[in-house]
Please model this.
Amino acid sequence: IAGITQAPTSQILAAGRRMTLRCTQDMRHNAMYWYRQDLGLGLRLIHYSNTAGTTGKGEVPDGYSVSRANTDDFPLTLASAVPSQTSVYFCASSEKQDYNEQFFGPGTRLTVL
Amino acid sequence: GQNIDQPTEMTATEGAIVQINCTYQTSGFNGLFWYQQHAGEAPTFLSYNVLDGLEEKGRFSSFLSRSKGYSYLLLKELQMKDSASYLCAVGDSNYQLIWGAGTKLIIKP
Model:
């Protein structure tokens, strides 16, 4: 693989269910990010990780959790999905925190009913 | 608060020039980015400005005025494949990117 991959590509989920969105990068980037993109709004940061073993909250973290056990993987978990979490989710990475060019995965389109 | 403003939609003609403006108010400034996003795809990096002035890269140029909190992306010799959304983003004091909602550019033949 080259770059960032995300899985699944799309998912329809019943409200109340638990869901993990997967993200893997092979660029050995230290920093990784999860965004959601909704129509008419800019990308909004959910959680980030500046290096393996550390995570931080972004602008809209409620209802989401992340972990960063190693450099390559950065899964995003919705513990109990709600319809307002219907969105397109993008994972991104950058070489380091203060090097801001970010590389994006292809996105996951999530619908919560 | 932090705010990035850019027009929602613009229309231009193939072969012409278009300028997409972006104004920002953020807590701190660590560079301004422009990304391109085709419908249904991920954003891809176009340009980065951290100092005032014009950065040129082929058909695309980006300008920054930090004192005015203003940037523009200039696209020359427009091609149909340039139809996309253009996202302005600013690095804040924590090096997190604050994103505008994007400008949808429609190119007509």
